Amino acid sequence: DVEEQWERMEDVVDSLLEKADICMDQAKGRDNQGSSASVVTQSTPQVTHSKVGYKVMHSSNIPRPQLTFPDRVDNSLAPFQRKIQDKPNALVPLSNGTPSAANSGDEEWDSHHQSLGIADHLVSLPHPYAYEIAQLEHPASLFTPHTPQPFLPFDKTPAQWIDTLEALKVVTRKLEGQSEIAVDLEAHDMRSYQGFTCLIQISTRKEDFLLDALVLRPHLHLLNQAFTDPSIVKVFHGATMDIEWLQRDFGVYVVNLFDTYHATKVLSFPSHSLASLLLKYANVNADKKYQLADWRIRPIPQEMLQYAQADTHYLLYIFDLLRNELLAGPSMQEEGEKKEEEEEGAEIDPTQWMRDVLKRSNNTSLRKYEKPIYDAIRGRDKGGWGKLLERWERPLDGAQMAVFKAVHAWRDQVARDEDESVRYVLPNHQLFSLAERCPVDQAGVIACCIPTPPVVRMHASDLALLIQHAESEAL
């Protein structure tokens, strides 16, 4: 199962990052017993080379950007509040009416939703551009083969760093005159419960822009003018998370999406990564070694900026080539398939594959961001105890299971309160160590968690009491 293997890989990577972050805190003398009166500044970014070839670009003492966000971080169980205030390119007005339904088709699960306080009437509002996406008439250019427009030489196309409102307005005006644009995002979620976008990369046929999403956060809603314009094709690769991040952080939505990932699926490519497309069509060996970089770093080192720029610089050229292959595809089917269709009297639609990609892309752009819930009873939420337990190789007895659930719930609540990721608060392997060993004092808790996460060190006594209580309740 691909999803399960991906989650296992995430656990390994998260564990490495957790250890690096905790060890850097300890090396800098941060004991988390209280805030220091001295001014803490970000250290010079450093690159750590892992055994598997990844480069972890990190820096200690990075200020937490979310502390300066004008929109308050809300990690509560209350529904996500849409950030969109006005609706460019609207076919119907922006509505604050009936919330969308949350019924899953599973009566037991829906009943449990209600017990958590997230029944239908409490779920977030509908997608504000659902009607526009449903009524979208794609530009005729998508259904006509084109001579691919070569990309400009990378070394002669410096990325433009955008970190002021005035510069952002210039960019948005330029985007509104394009027929297609390429977009990508870089985000951070290690030191945040829900995560946040740090950088937005946008490329036209002639220019590459890197938008500082931390500084421009309150103004990036201006991108809606171009991003919801149905005449402009927005080219992403693997847009699923990007679509949700744009909504979550800026109230930005996408109408007329072309996701090159879906094109690779329809064309039955053996690989579906952006790196494979860059190699196949642009003869570029993508350096994906900065996927573990900390995009909160400011200023961003030049090599990270080049990595980010490359993600969109070639994407419109790749789009041109994929468009031609999709339009040629139906007429190039195996002879047997063509004969079978002819016998059935069905005509071959040369736009069939393209329409399939666009339908899948529309479904992606219709995704809605929802805040993480916590399912204490069944553990079926993302990152829930039930899913985590399925990946653990050793069984837990009754008392250990009670401790596991109690500490798992404690971890989630502390992460919400402190706006940290659950894996930063307490890594999964340490969570299981606590469940299996059931320490009953502060020293025992710390002994189970080496290196000791700062939050665990602060709350070791509370954790010991929680474990004692959970264990006694189970006996």
TrEMBL record:
Family: Belongs to the exosome component 10/RRP6 family.
Alphabetized CDD domains for the sequence: Rrp6p_like_exo (cd06147)
Region spans: Disordered: 28-48, 90-110
Residue ranges of the TM segments: none
Ranges of Polar residues composition bias in the record: 32-48
Superkingdom, taxonomy of origin: Eukaryota
Pfam families found in the cross-reference section: DNA_pol_A_exo1 (PF01612), HRDC (PF00570), PMC2NT (PF08066)
Keyword field: Exonuclease, Exosome, Hydrolase, Nuclease, Nucleus, rRNA processing
GO cellular component entries: nuclear exosome (RNase complex); nucleolus
Species assigned in the record: Piptocephalis cylindrospora
Protein name: Ribonuclease H-like domain-containing protein
